[in-house]
Known about the structure:
Distance between the termini: 34 Å
Number of strands: 0
Largest sheet: none
Strand content: under 5%
Amino acid sequence: MAHETEARTAAVRRLGRGLPLDRVLDVTRPKAWTDLDEDVRQAVRRGALAPSHGWLTGVHGPGWRGFRDRAVGLVREAPTEARLALALCDPDGRIRQAALSYTVGRPEVLPLVAVRAADWAAPVRARALYLLREALPGASAGTLAVTAPVILRLDRRLRGGAAAELLDGLLRDGDPARVNGLLFGCRDAVTRRAALSVVLDRGLYDGLGLALVAAGDHDPLVQERAASAAVAADEPDATVPVLLGARFGRVRAAGVTALRGAGRHAEAEPYLYDRSGRTRACARWVLRQGGGDPVAVYRTACAGPDVPDRAPLGLGECGSRSVDAPLLRELTEHRSGRVRASAVAGLRLLDAAEPRRMRALLDDPEPAVVREARRALWS
């Protein structure tokens, strides 16, 4: 916490020295903008942004109030990016409102205009909303990807709903390229979720497009929704290979589930040994739906010469203690460390891990075996 406070204070100081915003904060994080608004305001109130400190000379005090005069037309001088950002965060609402007049054509401060669109001062809020309404339709993809997350974050505030409605209308009624840009080019997960909702409501993507979203996004909710929609599109020839090839277990699980709808139950068998427990469970379900017996498959695999790494684990997930525990105990002496670890995990799931044997395995050369033995002893 102390480190974060120091970093935020340092950001305000660097801004006070005139550094551009993208060198002061991570502009892709919406919290960075709302933190900046709060930090500048607190710094002014504490007197930390005073000419006597040297690093913000001429910005506050008489020179700062002169900025307000220029904003109402007495002097025509465009402020630097740093000074404009400070003015937009000032605790004085008259300064914030005056600063908004200089934001036209300044995309680098549009996220702060979004912050002001949730301002507690009605004149400031109204002016900021007007400027957002004018700027958002023509904003570049990069500017929108930075500003939209701020708008959505502020939607939680009492006065943040109007800007969020403005953004929603732009995405739902505007150019689909805007939605695509946010879904694939925005780092903020909340924004990508909102973009995906628009994609689904507008029917912008086919099954393959949705599968690609699911396979490429790191956010669990985006993966879940996109994968489910891809399966529902009923285009298995296009979607299943993409889903099954994904890095994420929940996406692969959706691909395995889609095999049932396509009548391709047998193709689920290799996924009985997947590294994802969810995917393994889906593979067992699909095999059963097609009349197969996943327990028998696991038993055969565990008794064979080349045991798949996770076959003992899978057997522990669905097998019988009385029937399968002896086989798994034998596999705790297998030549492969991964198979031994999997066998220990399977025994634990069957509640068949013998403490004496588990204690002996604490000296196993394979770290994964030791970890699983400890889990078995402590569970």
